[in-house]
Amino acid sequence: MSTPFYVSPQQAMADRAEYARKGIARGRSLVVLQYADGIVFVAENPSRALHKVSEIYDRIAFAATGKYNEYESLRIGGTRYADLRGYTYDRADVTARGLANLYAQTLGNIFSSAAEKPYEVELLVAEVGETPVDDEIYRLPHDGSIIDEHGSVAVGGNADQISSYLSQRHEDGMSLGEALRLAVEALSRESNGTERALTSDQLEVAVLDRTRPQQRKFKRVLGAQLARLLEEPAGGEGAEEAEGQAEGGEE
């Protein structure tokens, strides 16, 4: 009788983690930065139909990289949770922390289950506050752990290199144009140190803007507004004017 093949629990979990990390690294990178009036999400995404950044609730947004079908199912579940909780209790009871805990439980259960493969996704959940100090950004890797981030964060692709670049250059109180251009500079850097050009057609950009008068703070930055923000020099009058213009796009 042959001896059953044995793999230690530690090795099995390490193999699952490596599998998930490799899948996430194959995805295009996404960055989130705080700026003076809110939080900006910048993703390399040429598709106009398959979004990597979406609204979850009034002041909360969701961003992800990895396998689209997996993080889209998580987004839908989070939206349903937020709608039900806001309707049953109060809209103020829907928080980024609560959503992060929900996603952490889901990802953790899937990662530790031997019956299915781990999700190849990395999530970001952000909530804009009344002031920059009140902003919240949570990063959730494939294993369901929760990391509280501040300032800037990158996921997917060569995230470590991009995060290092952002941490050295990101400053508190940046304008939207300055933060957006810094994000694009970071995304355009290859792992070998070379740079490539990224145009507005290759980017998906959205913001949580605390200055918006309506309850919903999420908006997409599209078309001419995005092109102006990318082209304007830092501190230029045109950048300030562009930031004040809202273009379409709440989901």
Question: Could you write a compact summary of the structure shown?
Answer:
With 251 residues, the chain is α+β, with helices and mostly antiparallel strands.
Please describe what this structure looks like.
- This protein is α+β, with helices and mostly antiparallel strands.
- The chain is 37% helix and 22% strand.
- The protein has 7 helices and 10 strands.
- The strands form 2 sheets. The chain has a 5-stranded antiparallel β-sheet. A 5-stranded antiparallel β-sheet has the order 3-4-5-6-7.
- A hairpin with a 6-residue loop joins β6 and β7 (147-149).
- α6 (223-231) runs antiparallel to α7.
- It is globular.
- It starts with 8 loop residues before the first helix and ends in an 8-residue tail after the last helix.
- Mean pLDDT is 88; it is low at 237-243 and 245-251.
Topology:
Layout: H1 9-25, E1 30-35, E2 38-44, E3 53-57, E4 60-66, H2 68-88, H3 96-112, E5 121-127, E6 136-140, E7 147-149, E8 152-155, H4 159-169, H5 176-187, E9 203-209, E10 218-220, H6 223-231, H7 237-243
Antiparallel strand pairs: 1-2, 1-8, 2-9, 3-4, 4-5, 5-6, 6-7, 9-10
Helix pairs in contact: 4-5, 6-7
Arithmetic mean of pLDDT: 88
* Rounded radius of gyration (Å): 19 Å
Spatial order of the strands in the main sheet?
Answer: 8-1-2-9-10
- Helices and strands, in N-to-C order? HEEEEHHEEEEHHEEHH
The termini sit apart by 60 Å
Q: Please describe the biggest sheet, giving its number of strands, its sense, and whether it closes into a barrel.
A: 5 strands, antiparallel
Low-confidence stretches: 237-243, 245-251
How many individual helices? 7
Q: What structural class is derived from the secondary structure elements?
A: alpha+beta
Say how many strands there are.
Answer: 10
3D shape: globular
Beta-strand portion reads 15-25%
Helix % is: 25-40%
